[in-house]
TrEMBL record:
Annotated signal sequence range: none
The protein's name in its UniProt record: Nucleotidyl transferase domain-containing protein
Entry keyword set: Nucleotidyltransferase, Transferase
Claim: Hydrolase is one of the keywords in the record: no
Residue span(s) of domain Nucleotidyl transferase: 17-195
One Pfam short name: NTP_transferase
Gene3D superfamilies documented for this protein: HAD superfamily/HAD-like, Spore Coat Polysaccharide Biosynthesis Protein SpsA, Chain A
GO MF entry, a single one: nucleotidyltransferase activity
Domain of life of the organism encoding this protein: Eukaryota
């Protein structure tokens, strides 16, 4: 009984070995000054990309073989321990010499294992490759006593990997390094029935190949396993990324930059002066700073890829003796204007960085060296210029400025822009307050020209990020629809004046916007014909009284104003609170649905200067069918598809004055309005 229990217990555990004895010389030649596992990739060390994506279980042990450089010069052990502490076992094996290949490195690690550890299933993973596919889960499914080799299809002619020949049952019959014996290339993940079997094979390879460094590959160890009669299953993997050379790293970063791979959202904090802008050309006059284009391009690209941008500045801290309030009063407006003028996007802006002559920080990157390389971002100047052009086509829709301090958002603008939102916060029914940020405070200047609104900070991801990365699911869309219905179902008093103003957002508003760019080059013959049809439809919508009054609408639920937090709860921001010049919670519920539909027709792509690809258009069309099914196709639906498309076309037609007539947003919006009226959408 005890022997059977011991064998079963050990089969449930797994050794995960990550050798890191290589020198990383190719990265050194490119100017990287850290060992390869610690090279940052979108702000996070390479090794953590591997660890973050492993489905480790509590009984597993992760073994790290550390080079002397990695052990002595970097706090690697502490960082890894903090990540894995309490989750799995962690063992660090110091490699006191430069091993002559993976087999020798593995053997050095295996030699530190006891009998119990040697009996466990064992997998070896390269430190420079991470897997989206669950390779550990696939190995757990392999029968006891068998190994596994993870392969992908390589149709190229250059033999740059190791390759495996598989028989009809999917078992490996031969493996060779840098020799194209099949199209089954190996990913670098090799699994063994036990650490003991791996150790024995390593020893045989090392003993039979002394002086022949080329034979110390892990593939040679697997070939030895086959010679010993052990079955090794071929397991196909189609979702992994190798970052082992600077060229492979750059290729992966390009995927992140263009949205093909969605990297986890991380926080990047940039200083302002001498990082994004120069020191003032006129001492003390911060209006005389100049942009530092390369670093601004990095910020723009990171922000466009969904990363969080924080700007922290020590401006005037020495002048005002550390009084942050005085600093903001003195230099706040100029700083915000500078960010706007130089098209520097940000999510959070902090004043009050202590003034110092030298800053020492374990996460710091020298802004004047090669920040793109050191944070792990696209380094090509040509790539930066291309992406910068796309990002620069995202003009701000508002003169509103936002400051964040601790967990408070301070929104400042002219009183007219904020009046409706402040009214909404003060007047909304108690039953729906939980769906919005907490209202803290609002005030207006004595001359009533400016206003400020303070509310709680929502820690969430905008739906606009979800949709542009094609991760907004039907389920989440239905959650948003359900929440808006809850808002629409609220009952409260509404003035007769407000009800009379219900249609002011349609034909009247659209005509006013059209007048602002009627002479523009984007108002082509096609656009003029569409505009005439749209205004006619909106006028009939009003004259036929097709609107549905509800006591509460959001008024502007484009997806950038809908956030989902870590608890999968939705919060709504930037409510309208007015119809024309009339303050009102209520309005036509179909206006909210048209705003949602506007996003489902590509608005959030447009504001990023991007034309949706065919794949993205297909994705949006699928979401629209889900939306129409809920809003227009039910027995209790109050609006037809054609009418809702017409309202949405009016919204698109109204956008150019908000974003710039010649902007990408303006051009794409007018084109979408035309397509909606032509019936091609």
């Amino acid at each position: 009984f005890h022997a059977c229990y011991f064998a079963s217990f050990c089969r449930g555990r797994m050794n995960v070995i990550i050798p890191m004895g290589g020198l990383g010389s190719r990265f050194r030649k490119k100017g990287y000054n850290v060992p390869k596992p610690m090279v940052r990739v979108v702000g996070r060390p390479m090794i953590f990309w591997l660890l973050d994506n492993l489905s480790l279980e509590g009984q597993d042990t992760v073994w790290f073989g550390l080079s002397k450089e990695l052990r002595d010069e970097h706090v690697f052990k502490q960082q890894v321990s903090n990540l894995l502490k309490g989750k799995v076992g962690v063992k660090f094996i110091d490699l006191e010499f430069d091993t002559r290949g993976a087999a020798e490195t593995l053997f050095a690690i295996l030699s530190q294992m006891d009998e119990r550890e040697l009996s466990r299933k064992t997998i070896s993973l390269d430190c420079d490759t991470f897997y989206v596919t669950d390779v550990l889960g696939k190995f757990r499914q392999v029968a006891p006593g068998e190994g596994a080799i993870f392969v992908f299809e390589d149709a190229g002619s250059a033999p740059i990997y190791s390759y495996t020949v598989l028989d009809e049952s999917g078992s490996a019959v031969r493996i060779a390094e840098k020799l194209k014996i099949s199209n089954h290339a190996n990913t670098g993940a090799y699994a063994f029935p036990s650490a003991k079997s791996l150790k024995d094979s390593c020893e045989k390879v090392i003993d039979s190949s002394v002086g022949n460094v080329g034979e110390y590959y892990t593939s040679s160890v697997v070939q030895q396993l086959l010679k010993d009669g052990i079955i090794v299953r071929g397991v196909h993997v189609d979702d992994f990324h190798c970052l082992g050379t600077p060229e492979q790293l750059d290729a992966f970063l390009a995927l992140v930059a263009d949205g093909s791979f969605i990297a986890p959202r991380r926080r990047f904090c940039f200083d302002l002066d001498n990082t994004l802008v120069t020191a003032p050309e006129t001492p003390g006059d911060y209006t005389s700073v100049k942009p530092m284009h390369d670093n601004i391009a990095i910020v723009q690209q990171l922000h466009a890829a969904g990363q969080t941008i924080i700007i922290h500045t020590a401006r005037r801290m020495r002048t005002h003796g550390g009084n942050v309030g005085a600093v903001i009063a003195d230099i706040g407006a100029i700083t915000i204007q500078t960010l706007k003028d130089f098209n520097i996007p940000y999510d959070e802006l902090y004043f009050g960085k202590p003034y110092a002559d030298v800053y020492v920080d374990d996460l710091a990157v020298n802004a004047l060296d090669d920040p793109a390389r050191d944070i792990g971002w696209v380094g090509s100047k040509a790539a930066r210029s291309k992406d910068m052009e796309a990002v620069s086509n995202m003009p701000s829709r508002s003169s509103t400025t936002i400051l964040i301090q601790d967990n408070t958002v301070m929104k400042c603008s002219n009183s007219g822009d904020l009046e409706g939102e402040i009214f909404f916060y003060k007047s909304m029914p108690e039953s729906i307050r939980k769906y919005f940020p907490a209202y803290l405070h609002a005030n207006t200047t004595q001359d009533e020209r400016s206003a400020r609104l303070d509310m709680s900070l929502v820690h969430g991801v905008p739906f606009s990020q979800l949709i542009t990365h094609m991760v907004l699911t039907r389920s989440r869309l239905l959650m948003l629809i359900s929440l808006l219905r809850t808002v629409h179902d609220c009952k409260c008093s509404s003035s007769a004046e407000a009800k009379k103003a219900m249609y002011l957002n349609y034909a009247v508003k659209t005509r006013e916007r059209l007048d602002q760019y009627s002479e523009s080059s984007i108002m082509t013959e096609r656009a003029s014909a569409a505009a005439k049809s749209i205004v006619g439809l909106l006028s009939r919508y009003e004259s036929d009284d097709k609107g549905t009054w509800v006591d509460v609408i959001h008024g502007n639920p484009v997806l950038s104003n809908c956030l989902i937090d870590g608890r999968n709860e939705i919060k709504l921001i930037d409510m309208k609170g007015r119809l024309g010049k009339v303050l009102s919670l209520g309005g036509d519920e179909n206006y909210d649905w048209a705003k949602i539909l506007q996003s489902l027709y590509g608005y959030d792509f447009y504001v990023r200067g991007k034309v949706p690809t065919d794949q993205e258009e297909s994705y949006l069309a699928d979401l629209r069918e889900c939306f129409f099914g809920e809003i227009c196709d039910r027995e209790d639906s109050k609006i037809s598809r054609d009418d809702l498309k017409g309202l949405t076309a009016g919204l698109f037609l109204s956008l150019p004055p908000c974003h710039g007539e010649g902007s990408t947003v303006g051009q794409l919006s007018v084109d979408r309005a035309c397509r909606l009226m032509e019936g091609s959408d």
